[in-house]
Each structure stands twice: as C-alpha cells, then as structure tokens.
Design a protein that fits this description.
Number of domains: 2
Strand content: 15-25%
CATH architecture of the largest domain: 3-Layer(aba) Sandwich
CATH class of the largest domain: Alpha Beta
Number of helices: 14
Distance between the termini: 70 Å
CATH superfamily of the largest domain: Thiamin diphosphate (ThDP)-binding fold, Pyr/PP domains
Strand order of the largest sheet: 9-11-10-13-14-15
Structural class: alpha/beta
Mean pLDDT: 94
C-alpha cells in the first residue's frame, strides 16, 4: 500500500489500473480528460496492459464499451456533462446488454448558460437508465468506489454497468491523501472478469433480448433489469463488507455522520457533503443536535437504509445540487416518495437548491438551513423551496442586468 497526494481524476485512473481494465474507449472532455491522459501514459510506458482507443464521440465510446464488455473484456471509460448527454442514447441501451463495465462521470453543469464547474444535473439525467450509480465525496472514495463498482456490476446476480460520480474541479483537480492498495490485495477482492452467459462468441451463440420485441417480451426484459438493480442493494452490502475486511475502509450504502441523536439532518450527495460535516461539527459545538445523512449508492435507491437513518428525526434539510425544471430538486422529490406514509419519519422535508454551476455553499448557509428547518419543525409547516443565493449576489446580478439593459437601449437609438 502506498499513501500519496493525488487528484480525484488520478484516483479514478488508479481504480481502473488496479482493477485490471483491458480496454478503454475514450473521448476527451473537461474536466475528465486527465483520467484518460493518465491511463494513456501508463499504457504507453508499458505499466498497464490495456488498449485505449479514442472514438469520434461519447455515443460511439459508450457503444464500444458495451460491445467490448459483451465479448468478455473488462472495460473502463469516463466522461462528463455534455459528453454524458451526447451518449445518452447508448447510456439507456447498454444496460440491456447485461454486460457490466464501469463508467466514471466527472460532474459538470450542463448548458445553457455554459459552465465548466459542477452540479449534478448531468449524472441525474441518467438515473433511470439502468446504470448503477455510486457518488463520491473524497478522492479516496473515487478510487475505492471504482473497485467496488466492478465487483458490484460483475456479480452474477446483478450484471449491469455502473457509473461512479465525482464533482468536477472540487474533486477532479483537487489533491488529497489517497491510499493506493497493492495489486495483490486488489486481486484478493476483485477476481478476473467472468462474462458468464453475456459473453458473445460466434462459436457459442446465446440469446439476448436486444432485438426488436413486442410489448410483452419488452416488459419482461425491462423488469428483469429492474429486479437486477434491486438485487444490487443486497449485493452492495456484501461487497462493502468484504472491502472493509480487505482494506479497512467502510462504505455503507448510506453514510451517517453524527446523526444517531440528531433532531435535524442535512441530506445531500457529492463533495460538498464534506463542508456539511464541518458545519455539523460547528453546530454541535453550539449545542444543536444536527447531523448528516448521505447516500453513496443512488441507484439502486437505498430506501430502507434511508428510512432507518431518518427514523425519529424531526426535520431534514435536503440540499439539491441540481434543478429539475418545473419540479425542483431531484433528491428532495425522491426522498419524499421514499418516506411518504411511513410511521416515525420526519414531519418536515425542507428543500434547498444550492451549488448550481459550482457555486460554493458557505458555512453560514448551512447554519441558516438548519435554523430554517428547525423553525419549520417548531411551527409545524414546511417552508417553500428556496435557492441558496445571497443578497450581495443578487445585487451584482441586478447591476449586470442594468448594464445589459442600458447597452440595449443605446443600440436602439
């Protein structure tokens, strides 16, 4: 084992290298490119037995990944933002192959307007595709989750591709201490890929439901994918327990931080949850019973684990680093559905939209969200959803709008 200072992108590349990825179809896009550059350097230097091929688009890249995995090859790839959306047709198609591989997504806000910084609309657009989804908060989690994703995806009870998500810039280019395990230790946890019945071989034909079918047959195969995803909940717990035994790091499907005796909890995913932990510590020092609940596994949805984590809590401040237009925060809506009608669940689910396009969430905003949620619990009414946005930010926005308006008026004269 080696402990070193590396970026989240490098951690993802190390995960692919240690997993023994044999084929990497690739297409560069900011801020994912460093992952592919790192892998290409190792392959060129003879440090990694793997073939990397640059395709003409993310659509072709994901197609190649699914096809290669179907031939019995362990496959890795990575993308981000518009790249994930460009390949969305195949993101929905390849889970039907039941050929597992790992795709890392480096989250970045989607246009328009254009940003290079992160939020989660890109990855959440793929939540209904059939890909499993693991969400990371640290660089160490990126490496470890990549290894866990292979074990989970390749399990014979699952057989679905997996997506590992990390936040662009906040993790992709941030260096943190990461423990890189020895290859022998990884091999003890992650055996060679066994394609079983999904392997395509001309001399040994098998039937797969990937052709045009009528509604009854289509329904059967689609629901089989759903059941496989649900089985991944149980399989994940087994895999995480084995990982903890092998490497000493625990990754429950739902992380809880100082939430056992909490009255109010923050609920969120991604790297900003580390800021939430710091806010929890400060609020605890001030005598407030506040905690954090963070799903690492978002697909399949760990509903029962979330209910256990939130049982007896008075209120939840749900922080969505995404915005479903015309609906609101995706995490808020899904959590409300999971808790609805269940005894002992929080009476208040307060919705906050924050961190869009990489906008920071300040410690003071966490304190305010806790105060708003606590007040709502006391008054017995859920507050309306709100965007995290300061008065100073609004003044600056209004100034820019005034300048644009003046220039437009001047152009009409």
């Amino acid at each position: 084992m080696t402990r070193t200072l590396i970026t989240g992108n490098a951690a993802a590349a190390w995960g692919a290298r240690l997993a023994g990825a044999e084929y990497v179809p690739a297409f560069p896009i900011t801020p994912q490119t460093e992952i592919i550059e790192t892998l290409a350097g190792w392959i060129d230097a003879g440090e990694m037995e793997c073939r990397l091929v640059t395709l003409e688009s993310e659509h072709s890249m994901i197609t190649a990944a699914g096809a290669a995995a179907s031939t019995g090859v362990r496959v890795f790839s990575a993308t981000s933002s518009q790249g994930l959306l460009y390949g969305m047709e195949m993101v929905y198609a390849v889970p039907g192959y039941r050929a597992p591989f790992v795709l890392v997504n480096v989250s970045r806000g989607v246009q328009t307007p254009v940003t290079l910084e992160p939020d989660h609309n890109d990855v959440l657009a793929a939540r209904d595709s059939g890909f499993l989804q693991l969400h990371c908060a640290t660089c160490q989690e990126v490496l470890d989750s990549t290894l866990i994703a292979y074990r989970l995806a390749e399990d014979h009870r699952v057989r679905l591709p997996a997506l590992v998500n990390l936040d662009g810039f906040y993790l992709s280019f941030t260096r943190e201490p990461v423990e890189i395990p020895d290859r022998a230790a990884v091999e003890g946890f992650l055996p060679p890929y066994d394609p079983e019945t999904t392997r395509f071989h001309a001399g040994e034909p098998v039937s797969q439901g990937v052709v045009v079918l009528g509604g009854a047959y289509y329904s059967y195969f689609r629901y089989e994918q759903h059941l496989a995803a649900q089985r991944a909940l149980e399989v994940y717990d087994e895999v995480a327990a084995e990982f903890a035994q092998q490497f000493g790091r625990s990754y429950d499907a739902v992380e809880t931080y100082r939430s056992e005796d909490a009255e109010i909890v923050f609920f969120m995913i991604g790297s900003f949850s580390t800021k939430a932990k710091d806010a929890v510590d400060r609020l605890r020092e001030a005598g407030q019973a506040v905690g954090l609940v963070r799903p690492r596994l978002l697909r399949p949805y760990p509903a029962e684990a979330l209910r256990r984590a939130l049982d007896g809590k008075k209120g939840v401040a749900v922080i969505d680093q995404n915005l479903s237009m015309g609906m609101g925060g995706v995490l808020h809506g899904e959590l409300a559905g999971a808790l609805y009608g269940r005894a002992g669940m929080p009476s208040v689910l307060a919705s906050f939209i924050g961190g869009l396009g990489g906008r920071d969430i300040a410690a003071e905003e966490f304190y305010e969200m806790a105060a708003v949620t606590r007040r709502a619990c006391r008054e017995g009414s859920t507050p309306p959803p709100r965007l995290l946005y300061t008065a100073d930010e609004l003044r600056q926005m209004r100034k820019l709008q005034a300048v644009a308006h003046a220039e437009r008026m001047e152009g009409k004269q």
